[in-house]
Amino acid sequence: MTEGNPSAMSDIGKRTAYFHSAIRMMLMVIAALLLPVEAMADDSVDLNRLPPSLDPARTVNGLAQTPPMGWNSWNKFGCDINENVIRGAADAMASSGMKQAGYQYIVIDDCWHGPRNADGFITADPERFPSGIKALADYVHSKGLKFGIYSDAGTMTCAKRPGSHGHEYQDAIQYARWGVDYLKYDWCYTGTRNAEEAYAVMADALRATGRDIMFSLCEWGSNKPWLWAARIGNLWRTTGDISDRWDGNWSMLHNADENEKLWSYAGPGHWNDPDMLEVGNGKMTDTEYRSHFSLWAMMASPLIAGNDLSAMSEATKAILMNADVIAVDQDKLGIQGHRVAKDGDSEVWVKPLAGGARAVLLFNRGSKPAHIAFNWEQLGYPAHIKAAVRDLWAHRDLKPIAGQYAADVEPHGVVMLRIAG
Ligand code: GLA
To answer: What is the CATH number of the domain that holds 372?
Structure first.
């Protein structure tokens, strides 16, 4: 047989070659039929069409290794904001002790916007923010704080100001120019937009600016962001809006219960967000606000105060600045605590802490006093371990104890403990 000159092949040689190629074809067909469907599909996957959350090249921005802490204008001021309100919040955060307690971000929520300019860049409302957003961000930074702003993935914000849809990169550039460190991104007027895609576009736009900008997703849990947002943003709302109410619809307890179930999805860099704090806004009792704050800390929730920082009662300050409770929220292990026992209105919640300690919350939802007990097994400790116990609201170290513990808990109240065995 002469290589390189097929015409010189003998008839037998040609038939043999034909026979071999027919066998090869048959083997390929059989192999293809035997291959699992996924493996066949792999060849045809276009990486550009992977959902952002599955793109192996997508990395997180490295921010929010512990839950973010700050203040946001919405719960107290709604749309009634201007640059003096925001400056006042920054002043109060710096002078009240909140900054020293760990609160860092001053975030303007909805209603700061003016129109887009001729080139499509967003501007600030000239009446409410006559000095402009850059000057305001500079002011906040001059207090040693960080500055946050709000937009929406739709055509309009929830209060009908211009949304970012179609302007994501322009808006991100504008925020970076202004010195924005945090973006809360809402979900009104989004029509049929795909949430994962919409949030990924803004995440990419923020990333492209080269500035560290924390990204807060606010789509109220509608599209289960806990399943896809860990590599897109740093926190995602899990519920509808909170209001200054103990229970029922749009309440503190409703949001706590919805958020509790999702404990396994939170971790450093990506947190469940049951919405901003109502502590100090006046429609719950101080006992209820202590419970609210304790539940948020147990769930490693973002601690974004929503009250008037320039007019805080001593009780409000003592709640928002309880260093022991804040330390539970900010614990480096970053595990969201959850309910481990429930007996009627009496509940026990546990949060594992770095170094093997546990935060424990004895929570009485009811309107009568309750005696709530728990044992070391519920903490994952052997019963004989003698553990140090600190009461985080009484600010007292109790006697070391083994096996179990119980306390009386006032109606709608908590006893919060740090147990180190
Ligand atoms: C939505 C959000 C709120 C707030 C308002 C502003 O309701 O969930 O937190 O930002 O919009 O309009």
So the answer is: 2.60.40.1180
**What pTM, to 2 d.p., does this model score?**
0.89
Q: Is residue 186 within 6 Å of ligand 1 at its C-beta?
A: yes
Ligand 1: which of 189, 241, 242, 275 to mutate, most ligand atoms within 8 Å of CB? 241
Identify the domain containing residue 106 by its residue range. Answer: 67-329
Residues 6+ apart with CB under 8 A from 250: 240, 241, 242, 243
Which one-letter amino acid corresponds to residue 196?
E
Contact 119, 156 (CB under 8 A): no
Residues 39 and 119: their CA atoms lie apart, in Å, by 48
Residue 362, CB-side half-sphere exposure with 13 Å CA sphere: 23
Alpha-carbon radius of gyration of the chain: 28
Which of the residues are catalytic?
A: 186, 241
Question: From the alpha carbon of 237, which atom of ligand 1 is closest?
Answer: 8
Could you report the per-residue pLDDT of 136-154, keeping only the tens digit for each?
A: 999 999 999 999 999 999 9
pLDDT computed for residue 47 by the predictor? 64
Contact 235, 89 (CB under 8 A): no
**Pair 321, 402 in one domain:** no
